[in-house]
Design goal:
157 residues, mainly alpha, 0% strand
Length: 157
């Protein structure tokens, strides 16, 4: 390998590492909206997808695509279509609020008190904090998060 090719590889690899791909953007979105514990399942899906792609390359996917370039075009169209579908779904759900990212219930209680919540007599800030915390997070199952991230990783064009 010549020095020029090595430098080109370093620049290409650096750009690839610094630019977040769809799987990383999905992990960030899941982390912000669902918390760290749920994001682990999304991360595992991405790791399995990277492993599957690595195995496919190891077993000769590159040679098959070189012999039949239309396969690559079909894979790109399928992957791009899936990513557009995910983007549409996220757009329909709306923006993620970054106002209350803390998982600590005490911070949520402080927020409820700061809002001068004037509820019924006997309403304590613990119940307000619990209802606020549950209302701000969309619950997703672990298998759903794993499958979603796996599909994003496998169909990444």
């Amino acid at each position: 390998m010549t020095f020029e090719i090595w430098i080109a590889f370093v620049f290409a690899a650096s750009a690839n590492i610094l630019a977040p791909g769809p799987a990383i953007v999905l992990a960030i979105r899941n982390g912000l909206s669902l918390g760290m514990q749920k994001t682990i399942y999304s991360t595992l899906g991405n790791v399995v997808a990277i492993g599957c792609v690595g195995l496919a390359v190891t077993f000769g996917l590159g040679a098959i695509i070189s012999a039949e370039p239309k396969i690559l075009s079909v894979l790109r169209i399928m992957g791009g279509s899936y990513l557009l579908w995910l983007a549409w779904q996220n757009w329909q759900r709306g923006m993620i609020s970054l106002d209350h990212l803390s998982e600590d219930t005490n911070d949520i209680k402080d927020d409820a008190e700061d809002l001068n919540y004037s509820g019924n007599a006997g309403t304590d800030t613990d119940s307000i904090a619990t209802s606020f915390k549950s209302s701000r997070q969309t619950q997703r199952s672990a298998p759903y998060l794993f499958r979603q991230s796996l599909l994003v990783g496998l169909t990444n064009p």
